[in-house]
Specification:
alpha/beta; binds guanosine-5'-monophosphate; 197 residues; 4-stranded mixed beta sheet
């Protein structure tokens, strides 16, 4: 069995990564599994433990760092987030393609860690910064200072889009999801051809 491909989806807060991710994951033929991260951020309404994140306290997260359980980890607007090696590698070994939805610092750690042939990176851009600001303000359940921090961080993140294999614009969820599905299909086909040569 071929080992799966690791796919990173990044993009600034508010760009619509979650919706795009769900839309891509609905394409069963892609054989994509989502890697659930660990975080110290409080659970939001509607989120589910073990589906959206493993929600933990600071001490548990610190211990996981010390025990080297993370492929990458970072702090983002005062909370910690990390990708668990156990999630990623067991899924890859099962031949699944694995999707990480992570921010740019973590993505760069993974780029330094994983062989380029085993990794595909996609950055989701908003149609414009104004549009992004609107989306962050409208969907947010968080207090103004947190929103301001997310906006500042979003600007910085957009400047880091260049290191990714693909940059795609989320002008429309259905369209951009289809664009990403095509990118993935092509990459998976090429990989299958290469490994059977
Ligand atoms: P949120 O709090 O909105 O769920 O996530 C904040 C940011 O952290 C988003 O950009 C999200 O993609 C990113 N993120 C979620 N999980 C991880 C992770 O395990 N590692 C890293 N580096 N970023 C993550």
């Amino acid at each position: 069995m071929n080992k799966g491909l690791l796919v990173i989806l990044s993009g600034p807060s508010g760009v619509g990564k979650g919706t795009v991710r769900e839309s891509i994951m609905a394409h069963r033929e892609l054989n994509l599994a989502y890697s659930v991260s660990m975080t110290t951020r409080p659970m939001r309404p509607g989120e589910v433990e073990g589906r959206d994140y493993y929600f933990v306290d600071d001490a548990t997260f610190k211990k996981a760092v010390k025990d080297k359980l993370f492929l990458e980890h970072t702090s983002f607007v005062k909370h910690n987030y990390g990708t668990l090696k156990s999630e990623v590698f067991s899924l890859l070994e099962q031949g699944k393609n694995v999707l990480l939805e992570i921010e740019v610092n973590g993505a760069h750690q993974v780029m330094n860690e994983i062989n380029r042939d085993d990794l595909l990176t996609i950055f989701l851009l908003p149609p414009s910064y104004d549009e992004l600001e609107n989306r962050i303000r409208h969907r947010s359940t968080e207090p103004e200072p947190v929103i301001e921090k997310r906006l500042a961080k979003a600007k910085l993140e957009m400047e880091m889009a260049r290191g990714y294999n693909y940059q795609v614009v989320n002008d429309d969820v259905t369209r951009v999801s289809q664009e990403i599905v095509s990118i993935l299909q092509k990459a998976f086909q090429e990989r299958a051809t290469l490994t059977t040569l």
